[in-house]
Structures are given as C-alpha cells and as structure tokens.
Amino acid sequence: MARRAVLFDLGGVLFGPGLQHFLGSLERDSALPRNFLQKVMLDGGSDSPHAKVMRGQISLSQLFSEVEEGCRKHAAASGVPLPETFSIARAFESMAADGKLNTPFLQAAAALRRNGFKTCVFTNSWVDDSAGRLFTATLMNVLRRHFDLVIESCRVGMQKPEPGIYSHALEALQAQPQEVIFLDDIGENLKPARQLGMATILVRDTEAALKELQELSGLLDQEETLPTACDPANISHGYVPIRPGVQLHFVEMGHGPVVCLCHGFPESWLSWRYQIPALADAGFRVIALEMKGYGDSTAPPGELGLLPRQAPAASLSPRQGIAQAVLIGHDWGGFVVWNMALFYPERVRAVASLNTPYRPADPDVDIVEKMRSIPTFNYQFYFQEPGVAEAELEKDISRTMKVVIRSARQEVAHRPGSPLPFAAGGLLVGLPENPPASRILSGPALQYYVQQFTKSGFRGPLNWYRNMRPNWRWALSAKDRKITMPALMVTAGKDIVLHPSMSKGMEEWIPQLSRGHIEDCGHWTQMERPAELNKILLDWLEKLPESPSLPKISRL
C-alpha cells in the first residue's frame, strides 16, 4: 500500500529545542538536581500535572501553579534549596524566545503536499492562557499555513503514547496505518504507531531523518526545494470599492506591518503564492491585489488602462484603515508601485519592484515612439487594436498560459529571448497546440489562472497597454521628483525584455535604493526563483527603519 500521509511531531521535530531542553537549562540555573522538574511534572502518573495539561484538563497557567507547589514539596522533602524567585514559567518563556522552526522539515512538508501527500502536525500540547500565549497563537497560525491538519492533544482529550490518539489521527487523515509515516523525537511515542502498522522515524538529527523520509516517501529526492505556497481555497478573500461600479479583489494573510503585492500581465494575485506565506510568517500583514480588469476585480467596458491617480493601492489603503504600506510590484505592478511612491509618498513606507525599473517621464521623446524603438517591446503594439489579441489569447486559455508563463530554463514551446513570444501574425503563432506543462505554472495553480481569465477575459488586462500616452502625460507632472523612501530593485539576469541593464543609474532618482539580483531567472521572478526572491525581500524588509507611532488626531 502506497504511503500518502505524514505525521510530524512539533517539539523536537518541527520546533526545537523541545521543552525538555529548557527544563534542563532551568534546573542548571536554579541549582536543582538533574530531572528534578520532570519528576515533579510526571508525579501522579495519569493524574500528573503533565498528563492533565496535555489532555486539556487544566490550562498552562494551572500547570505552573501545580508544578511550583510540587517543587516546593519535593524540595522540602529532599532537602534541596529552591530559589525564592523560582518560576517554571521561565522554561516556557525561554522556549518562546530561543526556539526555532525547523525549516528543512517545513520544506519537506511543502514538497510532500505538492505531490498529493496529506501532512499533519501531531503534538502533545497545552491550552495556553499564560502571559506568553501570543507566541503559541502565532506559532500555531504558522503551522496551519504549512500543514493540512494540526492535531493537538489538549483539543482531543488524549495524549501520545495513548493508543486512542493514533486512531484519531488516522480517522482525521482518512488513511490506513500502512499509508502513514510518523516522525517523533521520543521513541515511546513511536511504539504504538509502529504496532498499528505505520512507518516511523525517530528524529535525532534532521539530515538523517530527512533521508529516511525521502526513502519512505520516494519523493523528496526528486523535488526542487520550493517555499510553501498558499491555496486559493484556504486564504481570506476580500473586496474593496475603488469608485462606483469598480471593485478590487484581494487576498490577505498575517498580522503586522502591511505589505501590498501588485502583479503584472498576464498574471493573478496567485503569482505571489510563494511569497504570501513567507512574508506572513515573518510578521507582516500581506495583501495581494488582483489588479483592475483581472479575475474578480472589475473594469468598466471601454475603460483604458490604469492611470497612477487611480492606482488600486491608493484606494485600498484608506478603505482598509491602512495609513501606510510597503508596496512590492512585478511587471505592470512595478509601474504601479513606483508611481505610488511618486504621487502618494505619504502612503508608502517603502517600495520594491521586481524586473520593472524606474525612469522619469521624458518630455522630449513621445512615449509611443520611444517604445517603437525598442524591438523587444513589439508585442505591445500587437495589443493596441481592441479585440485582436483578445481573440487569440482567449481561444484556449490553458494553452496561452502554458506557452507564455514558462521558466527561462525551459525552451520548449517558447521563443528564446522574450517572456511574451511575439511573432508576426500573433503571440502564439507557430507554437504547439498542446504545449508541455510549464515548470512554474501547472496543476491547481494553472487551473486557477484559467478560471480567473475565463471570468474576466483579456480585455481588461490588455487595456493596461492601451493607455501609453495618458499615463506618460500624467507622469510628466512628476518628472523632476525623486523617490526618497527606502526602495529595492530586483533584477533577473535572463529577463530579456526588462533586462537588468535597464535599471542602470536608478540611484540618481532613488537615493535610498537597494538592489537584489537573481542571475538564473527570467521574467516570472516570483514563480521561477521563489526561495531566492523571498530571501532578498525578507533581508530588505528586516533592515527597514521602524515605522513611527501613528499620530493622535484630535477628535472633531
């Protein structure tokens, strides 16, 4: 029977070091005998403080009280001096401060999920009503983003190694024991699983455990390491009106300072699927827009592309109660965020663009003539006549997406040198009717793209290209301004249209510009090199100056 589900313990596997490590540190700091705290916590067997808190019969703060009372009794009976300031809570506080998630295991779980495995956090845990409960809430939120299921002993009234909790896990997974792999760092917890017929891995070393998991699953050795992606069905969706009759669809994840993501053509908010969980895990509130004219966002009939003064991010912020946000854009989204920084700097904490460089509008050269002089932009003139490109691209949306959105490392069904493979007579002329799957857009993600473009068609997305002169004329009013907030330009070495050389000299207009570069990457940066991009973005975000406190506006 093929394996199709994996259970991961939390403390000591997904998160470490485990509680036992911090109890040992507290014993040393308090000059207590080794295993003194463990003996107190386990005293009473099935009625011990430890057993009761793991089954949810008492809360964590009650555990603190019972254990500290037990420590005083044991210390008095054994003649062990107990410091006056002793508190068992210190071990839990240290675990929150110094413990870390095990990234390789999270990456393994993501790879397993992409290949159809169900993944589950299977942990002995407590109901946390302590002063540090925000840490527990944050940790569990992160885990729920990375795993299909989370089973906590305190929620089901059973703890490992009680046999009942293993049966409960199998029922929740809808799996037979022979289909399940279970990883834990405590051998006693593995024994009942093994007796049921599960494959088990005793975790002592991450690398060795991953090798065992690879052998048992038969998958991880074939997988390129990718960050966890969000699922459209398991993320919060919302809508915000821009003006009467026009609304934007967006998705949202996380809590903290706001990061707003703006996609390009022909894409979706789902282009950011690998960035949204990573940014949320890092402590940001992530809002990914579906740009005007795409999917569930509207665009009135006949309306041309976006002027910066109608920018979605400008409308989203006040209506969502957001005074300022970090804006990150790709392709057309990069155009939007640079102009937001120019025209609405008070709303922009910092700004970043992927692939799309910034250049101030040039009053001496007509924008249309300038674009005609750049051969790699010829596809944009094919887009100008309403209805022509729409007919070609909408004929078979799945084929369109598979042809256009491909990795720079994959040349089949793609004309080298351009993210949009234009040839005389049409965008898709001469390319296979049944192109092979794209390495960066396939499966459920491709199906979602097809669903959204079936709803919206290509008129709205193509209209972004039909507004060159109005956008240029309006941008001329800001041609002498500089972008003064912190900024980031991320270039991709194999993006032939938006080549890194186009970003040369941006520092003249953006004094606080930082740079990131991914050499082996084409146009679709978020999907082609998500791990490298996430590192660049997070490193930059971590270095941003803290936002000042919001001013208190007197009540009218």
Automatic annotation (TrEMBL):
Coiled coil spans: none
InterPro entries: AB_hydrolase_1 (IPR000073), AB_hydrolase_fold (IPR029058), Epox_hydrolase-like (IPR000639), HAD-like_sf (IPR036412), HAD-SF_hydro_IA (IPR006439), HAD_sf (IPR023214), PGP-like_dom2 (IPR023198)
Gene3D superfamilies: alpha/beta hydrolase, HAD superfamily/HAD-like, Putative phosphatase, domain 2
Leader peptide range in chain numbering: none
Domain AB hydrolase-1: 257-530
GO molecular function: epoxide hydrolase activity
Pfam family, one: Hydrolase
Domain of life: Eukaryota
Keywords on record: Hydrolase
PANTHER family reported in the protein's UniProt record: EPOXIDE HYDROLASE
Family note: Belongs to the AB hydrolase superfamily. Epoxide hydrolase family.
Name of this protein: HYES hydrolase
Species annotation: Casuarius casuarius (Southern cassowary)
Name of the gene this protein is made from: Ephx2
